[in-house]
Design brief:
By secondary structure, the chain is an all-alpha fold. Helices cover about 85% and strands about 0% of the residues. It has one domain. α3 crosses α7 and α5 runs antiparallel to α6. It is flat, with a radius of gyration of 19 Å. It holds the Pfam family KbaA.
C-alpha cells in the first residue's frame, strides 16, 4: 500500500473517530449537557464538546495503533506456526480467554453481589459485532480472513479498551468502546479495498 493511501486511511479513520466520539459523547451525556445549557453554561458546553471531539480522535489513533500492531503480529505468527489453521486455533483460544476474562475480571472488581447479567452485555455485544464484521470480511475476501478479523475485532478491541474497562461503567466507557469498535471495523473492511486499488 502506498504512503498516500496509508495517510488517507489514517486521516479518514481519525475524522471518523472524532465524529463518532462526539456523537456518542452527546448521547451518553445528553442529560448533563442539557442541564448545563439550562444553567447558562454555554462556554462550558462547547468546551466539553470539543474535549469529547478530541478524545474521539485520540481513541481513533489508539485503534490505528492496535490495527497495525495486529497486522505485524499476524505476519510474525504465520511465520512461527507456518499454518493458517494452527494460528487460527491459537486465536480461537485467545478469543475464549479474553471473553471469559472480560466478564470475570470486571465482575470480580465491581460486581459486589450484583447480577452477572449486566457484565455479560458488553462482551456479548462486542462478540456479535465481531462475528458480523468477520463474516463481511470473509465474503469480501476469502474464508481464511474470518478468524483474523474476528480476533482483531474482539481481542484487540478489548485490549485497546482496557483503560476504561478497569473502571466502573461511565460515559467514557461507552464513548471509548463504541469509537474503537467503529474505527476498528472501518479499518478492517477498508484495508482489502485499498490493497485492491493498489494492485
Amino acid at each position: 500500500m502506498s504512503i498516500r493511501k496509508w495517510v488517507s486511511l489514517f486521516l479518514k479513520t481519525l475524522l471518523l473517530g472524532c465524529v463518532v466520539g462526539l456523537v456518542i459523547g452527546i448521547i451518553v451525556q445528553w442529560h448533563s449537557q442539557l442541564h448545563g445549557l439550562r444553567d447558562g453554561h454555554i462556554s462550558g458546553f462547547f468546551i466539553n464538546l470539543f474535549v469529547i471531539f478530541v478524545l474521539g480522535g485520540l481513541f481513533s489513533v489508539i485503534s490505528q495503533m492496535g490495527f497495525f500492531f495486529y497486522l505485524t503480529l499476524h505476519r510474525i505468527a504465520l511465520g512461527i506456526f507456518r499454518s493458517h489453521s494452527r494460528w487460527g486455533i491459537v486465536q480461537w483460544f485467545l478469543i475464549v480467554v479474553t471473553f471469559v476474562d472480560f466478564i470475570y475480571l470486571r465482575y470480580k472488581a465491581f460486581g459486589h453481589g450484583e447480577s452477572v447479567i449486566g457484565y455479560l452485555i458488553p462482551p456479548v455485544v462486542l462478540f456479535i459485532i465481531a462475528l458480523v464484521i468477520a463474516e463481511v470480511k470473509k465474503r469480501e475476501t476469502n474464508k481464511i480472513a474470518y478468524i483474523p478479523a474476528l480476533f482483531f475485532m474482539f481481542v484487540v478491541t478489548t485490549l485497546e479498551w482496557l483503560p476504561v474497562l478497569r473502571q466502573k461503567e461511565n460515559s467514557m466507557f461507552w464513548v471509548m468502546g463504541l469509537t474503537l469498535v467503529v474505527c476498528n471495523a472501518y479499518q478492517m473492511l477498508k484495508l482489502h479495498r485499498l490493497l485492491k486499488e493498489t494492485q
